[in-house]
Amino acid sequence: MRETLFISDLHLAAQRADTSRLFLRFLTTRARSADALYILGDLFDSWVGDDFQEPPIPQIQAELRALSRNGTRVFLMHGNRDFLLGAEFAEACSARLLDEPTRIDLYGEPTLLLHGDLLCTDDRTYQAFRRQVRAPAFVRQFLDKPLAERIAIANEYRRRSGEATSLKASEIMDVNQDAVEQMMRLHRVRRLIHGHTHRPAEHEFPLDGGRAQRLVLAEWHADRGQLLSASETALRFETFSG
After folding, report:
1. How far apart are CA 174 and CA 116, in angstroms?
2. Which DSSP symbol is given to 44?
3. Which residues pair with 77 in a beta bridge?
4. Where are the domains of the chain?
5. Which residues, given as ranges, of the chain have pLDDT below 70?
6. How many whole angstroms from its chain centre is CA 8?
7. How many other CB atoms are there within 10 angstroms of residue 32's CB atom?
8. Is 237 exposed, middle or buried (0-12, 13-18, 19+ CB in 10 A)?
9. How many angstroms separate the Cα of 33 from the Cα of each of 26, 112, 127, 167, 240?
10. What burial letters (b/e) apply to 137-173, b meaning 16+ CB within 10 Å?
11. How many Å is the Cα radius of gyration of the chain?
């Protein structure tokens, strides 16, 4: 049976070795039965440029490349943590980098894919920061810095981000329903899949006289990861524990 898998928010890093090992087992076992694997952002907890090759990055690249060569198409989308992932990394993984958002035909159902932070419009401070750091000039200036300086900047950003998040109301960090509906109308879909919020759920709601669906992917942990499996006949969430 044809199958497509969706995951997000693994936040892989050297200090999260158990999560990296779980993901590597997933790539060599469960993922190999799929026609396609979509990673919808924050594969890594931070990314400072494709020249950064700290473990587990080389092994992740090798196993994604092996998965692709085994016949599973691999697609990557930027997240808020790893939006600097570039063509060099994607090529090393034999993967395709996707624009955000991306509209696909999922077994006959037009489906919109996002990381999800674009929909958190109530957090105006974050949205302003997002526009700033993703501006092409800002990205060029950052990537031109020495690697050690980029790493230091990223570490400081993570520290400040954690402090700022702890002070925000929970509702601000979730998606805005009006933003969801506007995005779905713009791209003419009734199904949307995203991550980012770490609030896994299946939401159904009315949209322009019909029913719409928003599927939210979960964050991965050391002992378990969640995926969404789609086939021609069903959609289901699944827990992978290795």
Report:
1. 9
2. B
3. 40, 98
4. 3-240
5. 162-172
6. 4
7. 14
8. middle
9. 11, 23, 38, 42, 14
10. eeeeebeeeeeeebbeebeeeeeeeeeeeeeeeeeeb
11. 18
Q: What is the DSSP letter of 118?
A: G
pLDDT the model gives residue 168: 53
In whole angstroms, give the CA distance from residue 42 to residue 196: 8
CATH class of the domain at 3-240 = alpha beta
Alpha-carbon span 204 to 202, nearest angstrom: 7
Kindly state the percentage of the chain with pLDDT values over 70: 95
- For the four alpha carbons of 8, 14, 19 and 25, in that order, the dihedral sign comes to positive
pLDDT value of residue 1: 73
CB-based burial label for 130 (10 Å; 0-12, 13-18, 19+): middle
Q: Which two tokens stand for residue 101?
A: 């958002």
21, 63 in Cβ contact below 8 A? no
* Stated pTM of the model: 0.94
Q: Which two tokens stand for residue 49?
A: 């440029």
Backbone angles phi, psi at 238, to 5 degrees: -145, 140
Tell me how crowded residue 103 is: count the other CB atoms within 10 A of its CB. Answer: 15
What pLDDT is attached to residue 171?
A: 63
Residue with tokens 């700290």: 54
* Residue 129 CA to its chain's centroid (Å): 19
Q: Are 215 and 228 in contact (CB under 8 A)?
A: yes
